[in-house]
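Predict both folds.
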Amino acid sequence: MAQQERARRTRAAIVEAAATEFARRGYAAASVNAILEGSNATKGAMYFHFQSKEDLARAVLVAALERYTAITEKWQGSTLHPFEVIRGIIDDIALGFQTDVIVRAEFRLIVEPEFYSEVKTGSGRAWGLAGHELARQAQEMGDLKPEFDPDKFTRVLSASLAGQRFMADLVSDSTELRALFQESLEVLLYAMATPQWLDTWQRVGWPPLALVATKSASDLPV
């Protein structure tokens, strides 16, 4: 058991070091030697767990999917309005970008040609399915305008969040990513939510996230 635990910790350290390198340099420029140095693992230990740099990248993508899955599962069963749950989910995702190198690395990796398919099958799909279901619930409650549907709502929101994340890096905007993500959601709601829902929301505002955030998704094993 002790040997298995050491192997698990070694693997986790290698994945964390790989994520740090991928987040900093991207996939093509990432250095296996830098990953080894960052993990304090031997080359033999690394190749015991991973046969190639691509295997390392895919392990990071799997770890990121676990993060996103944990975030969406955290909000399952919430009694908040679906739009408020969406706000909570995207706030957790933004926080992940700020605090979790695995999440940052995944964003760098999915723009590489080798990993384009992960956009449809990886963490984006996990968040997209949750967002779509919540938009469907809002539609059933009569809070989404009839000319819009859950597909369009989720597609536009996902594209806006990705754009906010990308532009934040390009322009070094000092605005916190969590505020930018909330901005994207609010602009979309002004366009797609019903006047009745907007009137209530403008009067009472968003509920404090601290009251409903009960656990973190940042501590998952890799």
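Second protein follows, with its predicted structure tokens after the sequence.
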Amino acid sequence: MLKEKIASFREKHETKLDIIFFIGGFVFDAWMVAAPDELFSIFQQMVYLFLISAFIHFEILYRLMKWRPGTTVAKVWPYRNLALHFLLGTLLNVYSIFYIKSASLFSSLVFLILMLAIILANELPFVKKANLGLKVALHAICLFSFLSIVYPIAFGFVGVFPFGCAIATTVGFYYLQFRFLNKAIQEHHILYRAIFAPAVSVIAVFALFYFLGWIPPVPLSVKEQGVYHMIEKKEGKYLLSYEDAERHFWQRTNSSFRAESGDKIYFYAQIYSPARISDQVIVHWFQKDKKANWISTDKVPLKIQGGREEGFRGYAYKSNYTEGDWKIVVETSSGIEISRLYFTLYMVEKDPSRTFKVDEK
């Protein structure tokens, strides 16, 4: 009786419950997700990807009557769709969280909206009942995302080469799966529509987004940034000086900078990267001209070394500037944006009584 009531309630409120569990699962994953280079997490993702590949492989054979589950597998086979979307949902959550942490909202908004839409779609009933091509596409997103994180960790840097390796490996995987299935299934067009076309389409979109600069440079992320009047390093800590008048109580960093003659503008950033990564980022300074165009004024390289949980600490400074609106963009060496900071610079008269507050990092 209770079982029937639960089933009836589930059927009546299926979509609402799916959305509630999706939001709860996403929040839980965001809280529990490990660092990108955590070995157990990498192993777990590999197991999930293998299981999804196995589900898809045997599902194709099953639908074409080339394989039938044995007695033990037959008991759980009716639940394969639930298991498949649980695994896909978990991986999509994890990779979306990594992308969100690494994203500059200004440059990656389209990509982030797309990823969140895909996660939500994975929970909808009509997607769970969709053809295999859509599930292969979701798997391709997960596999490519996994490789695009693992390769930079393995090579020790981010950029075009690790990204290219992720693309090549993903395409190679589906080509091998295509060839392996082709031994049992002679209908090339069926396999092409079910396996190769969806996977290659996903990779083509990711490649386009990468060269447009829309894909966040996982596993790098800027955890904190700001502009300051002075930065000093003492006993392993950074002392960051700023004027109290430049920051409102709800702000973590300054939206304005009051410069006296001779002042320098210091930009500070905490950049997270896994321990194996030793790379260089670019601190790119822009000023808005009279036509409201952003004009590049300086590019300052900043060497980073991964491994610190709070992020590698570093800074750059600028001594030649004029009053106006400014933008500082932290980029990878290949030009992919990691973060962006806006502030307005005001030239003021010298004030002997000027005082500073100091943040310690």
